[in-house]
Design brief:
Blueprint lengths: L27 E3 L36 E8 L5 E10 L5 E7 L5 H5 L3 E9 L7 E3 L11 E10 L5 E10 L8 E4 L6 E5 L4 E2 L1 E2 L3 E2 L17 E10 L3 E4 L12 E11 L3 E5 L2 E7 L2 E7 L2 H22 L6 E6 L5 E5 L2 E5 L3 H9 L8 E2 L6 H15 L25 H23 L1 H15 L3 E2 L1 H7 L4 H9 L5
Parallel strand pairs: 1-18, 2-14, 19-20, 20-22, 23-24
Antiparallel strand pairs: 2-3, 3-8, 4-7, 4-11, 5-8, 6-7, 9-10, 10-17, 12-13, 14-16, 15-17, 18-19, 21-22
Helix pairs in contact: 2-3, 3-4, 4-5, 5-6, 5-8, 6-7
The structure holds zinc ion.
Zinc ion (ZN) binds next to helix 4.
Amino acid sequence: MRVRTFGVVAVGVITLAACSSSTSGHGTRLTGPPSASGSSAPQGPPSSGASANCPATYAAPDPKRPKVALQFTVSDDLSTAQGSEHVEFTPDLPITELVFRLTANTAPTVEAGNKIVINSAKADHGGGAPKYDADGAAPSTQGGLLHIPFAAQIPAGTTVSADITFTLTLGNGSFDRFGRVGDGASRYAWFGSAQPLLAWERGHGWHTEPMIQFTAESATSEAMQTDLTVTAPASKTVIMSGDPADPGGTGATKTWHSTVDSARDVSVAVGPFVVSDSIVNGVKLRVGATSADERDQLVELFTLAITEHSKRFGPFPFPSLSVARVPAQGGGIEYPSSILMLDSSKLVAVHETAHQWFYAMVGDSQALHAWLDEAFATYAEELVDNDAPPSSALDMSGDVDKPTASYGDGESAYYSVTYTKGAAALHAARAAAGDDKFDAAIRCYVNANAWRIANPSDLATALAALPAAIAVLRKAHALP
Ligand SMILES: [Zn+2]
């Protein structure tokens, strides 16, 4: 889900001025009317005749997807957030518990001063007292998984409600989902995957894979009907999933509210952002940065990214994209309809935007099959830049489709194999099948798996008529 400043992903050459200064201000700039050109209008899968494996447009979200209402109240000094979560969940399999992932308790995240503490957790249908699993989380925390057990098995199809309250502590800003940087009026904070994340996959059940020992991803979550409310000091702008309007008002705090029809997760950034609002092919693009120059540079890059990816993969999955360039360094982290940028490069902007299709819309288990979003985002970014990796990347040792936790603390190997080798395999598969046929098959895969959690077998289904592509991906151990 991210691109780090590793040589293996070629970001190391990009250097940026330090951004922890207080050069910031307020302001909203409208950068032009809605585009009427529709140049990225969906063309549908090039193959004629829709089928179950190749619908003509994105599959609709599951009408029985979970509903979640999240509230965060950020403290004056942005060091903590009080959170509450209400979930309504209708499992497609019988359950004996609810399981939520506590991403903020990942060991390196806690080392930087961040953590989540559950204050209360309860469920109807006889939900009992919460329990916690360490699951590889920092030992000083409650753990990496929150369980709410039931006295008796709950049949599939039963809607269960849960209410959780929690306190989030934000530590020193670094390349992570959580952080706080600066002082007083120039202080920024951000958090993503901050709420206990319902760890369900339809047809599979709970995902309880161990937390990983570096700051990549290990969560799996269904797309949910999401309602997000953030209360923050009135002097700050909030940039978050769902692109809320500025609530205005004259009080000490402002409450920002948005909804996202289908989102696996959310991110929130709070600070004295310099903001731009524009419309790109019908998508509301909000970009906030610490300076007008950096903001303008990012508007240009995200306009390009939305436009180019839409041409290849289909319409942008959300009505809006909210981008927060926060004052820390390292790369980018994507969320449904929002992106945290800790970098201002084209590479990162294009990569994270590609994740709106691969991860945000076509989901995957980031614990078990991370390549399905990371290799695809890297591949998509390289197609925009016409910059395929050398085929020698395929000679790297390691299976592309491999559980993230199996890398232990081998962060470098994870990035090399999952991103670089995975993307190289996709380029090689495209070359073997023929660009047009491969692109059409990927459109089928995207359409069929929209708003679901895809597995490698779903990709194999989409590529079934292209055995040369399958052979390349199997050789790299990307497909079974
Ligand atoms: Zn990524």
